[in-house]
Each structure stands twice: as C-alpha cells, then as structure tokens.
C-alpha cells in the first residue's frame, strides 16, 4: 500500500500537459494548478516588476484566446520554441490597466532544440 501511495504522490506533483486553447476553455478549474506547455515565444518584455513577461502561442485557440502570458525569472527571444512550466493564476490584476484572464506565473522556460 505504501508504495502505491508514494507513486500517486509523485504523479500528483507532475505538471499537467495543456494547450493554450485548453487553458482558456478550462480556466475556471485551473487556478493554482501546475501546468506545462510547448510553443513559440511571440513577445518578450523583460525586467518589468522584477519579472520577465513572455507571450507564448502554440497554434491552438482563436483570436483572443490563442496567446498565453507567462511571468518568469527566465527569458527567451521572440521566435524561440520553448517548454514552459508554472502555476496558473486566473483574473490577475496588476493595476494600471494590466489585467490577465489567465496567467502562467513563476514559470521555468526551457528552449527546445538548442
């Protein structure tokens, strides 16, 4: 029994594999979940409020729900294909008009194929 329990605990800590479209579709149930995505960086704003803001697209979703904003201490360049892993936050308001319906925070960013 103990072996089964510890193996379930390990599986529960692993990031859920998601697409950008799935995050928008399931956002009401994902706040606080650890997820992983793969896609291409389309915009980068470094060193804003002590973090880097990256925008990722993976070819899923439609206009308005096809771009995921990521905050991280890591960065990447526009055009980089990356795997990101972090925690979902829903309806984040940084003030000054900067609100995000869904945000991947404290993400790790790993470039693919480099």
How many H/I helical runs?
2
Total domain units: 1
N-to-C terminal Cα separation, in Å? 42 Å
Q: What is the CATH third-level topology name? A: OB fold (Dihydrolipoamide Acetyltransferase, E2P)
Measured as a percent range, the helix fraction is 10-25%
Q: Which segments are poorly predicted (pLDDT under 50) over 5 or more consecutive residues?
A: 1-12
* Widest beta sheet: strand line-up: 2-3-4-6-5
- Counting DSSP E segments of at least 2 residues, the number of strands comes to 6
Sequence of secondary-structure elements: HEHEEEEE
Please tell me what the overall shape is.
Answer: globular
Q: What structural class do you assign from the helix and strand content? A: alpha/beta
Q: What does this molecule look like?
A:
It is globular and about 35 Å long. It contains two helices and six strands, in the order αβαβββββ. Helix content is 20%, strand content 48%. The chain has a five-stranded mixed beta barrel. The protein has a single domain, classed as Nucleic acid-binding proteins (OB fold (Dihydrolipoamide Acetyltransferase, E2P), Beta Barrel), CATH 2.40.50. By secondary structure, the chain is α/β, with parallel strands linked by helices. Helix 2 links the parallel strand 1 (16-17) and strand 2 (34-48).
Question: Can you describe this structure in just a few lines?
Answer:
By secondary structure, the protein is an alpha/beta fold.
Q: Topology, please?
A:
Blueprint: H1 2-13, E1 16-17, H2 20-30, E2 34-48, E3 51-57, E4 68-72, E5 81-93, E6 99-111
Parallel strand pairs: 1-2, 4-6
Antiparallel strand pairs: 2-3, 2-5, 3-4, 5-6
